[in-house]
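User: Fold both of these, please.

Assistant: Here is the first one.
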Amino acid sequence: MAAIIDGKAISEKLRKTIAADAAALAQRDAVPGLAVVLVGDDPASRTYVSMKEKACQKAGIYSQERQLPEDTSEAELLALIDRLNRDERIDGILVQLPLPKQIDTARVIESIDPRKDVDGFHPYNFGRLAAGNPLFQPCTPYGIMKLLDETGVDLTGKEVVVVGRSNIVGKPVALMCLARHATVTICHSRTRDLPRRVVQGDVVIAAVGKAQMIKGEWIKEGAVVIDVGINRIEGNKLVGDVDFAAACRRASAITPVPGGVGPMTITMLLANTVESSKRRLQG
């Protein structure tokens, strides 16, 4: 049976270091600051924002939540981001997605100062990641790399199969694995003969957003499986993109859902915010 990669335990370990760094910055009058902007009142987004606020408080990071009504115009949101860009208390700006249909998400992301883009979604930061010189790395892929590090996985020369091509997870995590000298294959829901591709992976990163799409028999014996998916199925049960029970019989290590990748996303958001504060202090 596969070893379970405990994202919650690894996250807690990293947050202790983050809190110590934040405390050291506070002693130099450079308390890290994060602004989270929520447009509308989507329950899932509301819960996620609340989790971020609590995590900031525990880590010693100043948090500023801005909740705007569902009918907020794009101009109003851009004006708020402009004020936050100029606010010296704020080291990181995060706009919770998805946004209402009247707002152009790409334009909003591009309006954030890249030096405060702790989500790592700005084209400037994505370009730096692609060039191998990242400023901020997207939080979920960054967390995946930390999980691999803490599990002792050396990607050098490994075959990594990424299932999913989003700008949030699939593409950036592929770039990060390339930077670690892995050979990377990016697949997606329309890839022909997906099982044949997946079974080649020494490391499989599933981020396609379809419940239990990756079957256990697709996993190579001894592979490491990172399951990014969070899907609700009948009975309100949370499952990943991988058939966990079957994959456990073939993988050497696997992340559970929940409790695997999920806790790492907010942790790396805190890490990026603290790093932004350090850069501000350095001028």
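And the second sequence with its predicted structure:
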Amino acid sequence: MNNHYHLFIQTPEANLVEGMKWFQNTVTRRFNVRHREWGRLFGDRYKAVVVDGESPYYYETLWDYIHLNPGRAGLVDVTRGQSVLDYPWSSLAGGYALMPHQRAKWLAAEQGLATMGVEDTAEGREKMAKRLDERVTEERERSGLVTVDADADKRGSHLQRGWYWGKQAFAEKLMKLGEEVIGRKRKARGYDASPERQAHGEQNALALLDEGLRLANLRADELAGHRCTEPRKVLLAGLLWKKTTMSQSWIAEHLGMKNAANVSRVIHRMDLLRIEKKVPTKLRCFVFKKMKQNEH
């Protein structure tokens, strides 16, 4: 692509960061030496999407999405006799379409072909290319894009956004594995800006909010009818701000407080000694207990 690249990587160890650091630094140095340039080559940190490897569907759709990108971007035109194999900067032309002894050793072409249901033979490789060309012809601009159901998990990448590509159970498994790291006391709110932490944080925030509303005898659909300084709303806003990674805009939306400025104002003016006399005892005990957790 003219401004980005795609890599489909399988790593047996949790060392993606180290590997990508080496890869991008190496490419930058070699590019600068070859073209007599200097400075950064890549504009920003790479985006990583974790893929559910237990389901062939997610493997196949990602494989297609990457290799159909030249057709989607108009870099090859199959209606004029071109093929996805005519794009040279791809693992198709530079790997899958070649004989095994001609490929780079790091390219798992045999595994990829097997997953796509074709043999690693001249006939199988031709069948693979023909299928991709047909997809470009039939789908044009959307070739390789995945149609997403309206009720799909919005945390999923859908191969264009989000941080994982797989079933919701897969995402929850990942978040559970990362709870120990994600749950550590953060140094600043910016520390929690990654999609993974945001997803985990929102899950925790919604759980706190649901329990808090129950103990406050408040329904979500009646929050907007109460003023921003309503003691129960103020107490819950303070809890969400202190114990989750959610922004003040998110808190304002979910507590019916109109905007982030209102949340900021009530939090900074919050008088716990005054508020605790105006809220249900169960809510007060719940909030104070949560606020004291993990404090040192």
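The chain has 14 helices and two strands.
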